[in-house]
Write a structure and sequence with these properties.
36 strands, 1 helix, single chain, mainly beta
Length: about 425
């Protein structure tokens, strides 16, 4: 068992000895001043010895220390502080899931049938066919498991109980009792979509379960910067929080770009084929980027998107910013979206082959940081750690966490 006492703040170095001793260290002499002695005479040899003893006592009592014993290893991992970065991983020994730190050590024990990333300092885990949420110390916040659940969004999570959905807060308490056939994620403005029955229309409520907009839409996407893309009939438009149209429902598809007052739109290609092209408009419907791309994509978990993966009409991949400027040239046969600061790109081995060379990991300037192993691809980036995947000789998935410097932190097989 390890125990750590908080060290004295460095600002307090002038007074490491408690005032009750009536002594302190002087920066000028390094000697002790007796505040009961108005003449402040320099310490004698006896005072120097007393000084040494007091300093030793102060060090023992107040300077942070750690007392560890290797015999305590059987007691399991030490809970991690709430500000520690954690990554879900599977134990190669137990076959269960837990959470590791940046060194690849399990700090939340591998005891779950499945585990998911942390959002809003809460992670969804599964055990015994039920869903639970834990905090960053591994404490379960809901003692009763749910039938299903979704990750936290803006401090709330959707949970399924007895066939209907409700909403919980970070303490695991219901703020909306399970009564809905379906619920959407909570947006930053506290609004979420709801559906009362299968095949029914979608409306909008707030986290107090107050109805804001009655059910009238075929589909409602999550609000982004005060605007939600919705489907009315067969077309998409966008509404504000009062339900007023800010973009008329005339588009085949609309999707908000997270963290921006921008929307990806889709329209049919000008060659009258069945294909579609994508562009970007603002919340007023003004076109910012013309519909020139066969695809525009980003990390679905991103809260703010600055760079989008784009595919041009020549079937080449590159990256553009939200203003349509090319930031990584269109020269790749494959590209992942940017997961955080990193993406993976590759080119085919030949013009007549779909077999690709090894993937290169790039940063947002397009600089190649390193090359992945044969058959390895970038699966995700979470908290700055790159997660890659490849198939082994038994066709099982092998996942590896790597740093941006290509240092392997942890590997497991599923």
């Amino acid at each position: 068992m390890c125990a750590r006492l908080s060290p004295i703040p460095t600002e307090s170095i002038d007074e490491v000895i408690s005032p009750r001793f009536f002594y302190c260290l002087t920066p000028e002499t390094g000697l002790i001043i007796d505040h009961n002695n108005q003449n402040n005479k320099k310490s004698t040899k006896m005072k120097t010895l007393r000084y040494i003893g007091i300093v030793l006592m102060a060090i023992i009592l107040t300077i942070g220390f750690t007392a560890c014993s290797s015999d305590d290893d059987d007691e399991g991992p030490v809970p991690s502080p709430t500000n520690t970065k954690l990554w879900k991983a599977k134990s190669n020994g137990t076959g269960k899931y837990g959470y590791i730190n940046e060194n690849g050590d399990f700090v939340i024990a591998a005891q779950y049938d499945a585990a998911h990333d942390f959002y809003c300092e809460r992670a969804m885990v599964q055990a015994g066919g039920k869903y639970y949420f834990i905090d960053t110390n591994g404490n379960i916040i809901n003692s009763t498991g749910f039938d299903s659940a979704e990750k936290f969004s803006n401090n709330y999570a959707r949970v399924l109980k007895d066939g209907v959905w409700g909403l919980i807060d970070k303490s695991g308490n219901f703020v909306i009792q399970p009564t809905y056939y379906a619920l959407g994620d909570v947006a930053t403005n506290g609004l979420l979509a709801f559906r009362l029955q299968s095949g029914g229309k979608w409306g909008i409520i707030n986290t107090n379960n107050e109805r804001v907009i009655n059910p009238e839409y075929n589909w409602v996407r999550k609000f982004n910067n005060g605007v939600a893309c919705v489907q009315s009939g067969s077309k998409y438009g966008a509404i504000n929080a009062e339900g007023k149209w800010v973009i008329a429902p005339t588009y085949d598809e609309l999707k908000s770009i997270p963290g921006k007052d921008l929307i990806r739109f889709q329209e049919k290609a000008s060659d009258n084929s069945s294909s579609h092209l994508y562009g970007i408009m603002d919340h007023n419907g003004n076109i910012k980027v013309q519909a020139l791309y066969k695809s525009l994509y980003w990390d679905e978990d991103a809260t703010v998107v600055d760079i989008l993966r784009a595919e041009n009409i020549s079937d080449k991949y590159g990256f553009i910013d939200v203003n349509g400027n090319t930031v990584v040239p269109f020269e790749y046969d494959y590209a992942s979206p940017f997961y955080g600061e990193y993406a993976a790109v590759a080119v085919n081995k030949s013009a007549n082959s779909s077999e690709r060379n090894n993937y290169n990991v790039i940063d947002k300037s397009g600089k190649i940081l390193f090359t992945l192993e044969e058959g390895e691809s970038l699966s995700d980036v979470y908290n700055g750690m790159l997660k890659t995947m490849k198939l082994n000789e038994n066709n099982a998935r092998v996942y590896t966490y790597r740093t941006k410097d290509n240092k392997i932190t942890y590997t497991w097989t599923e």
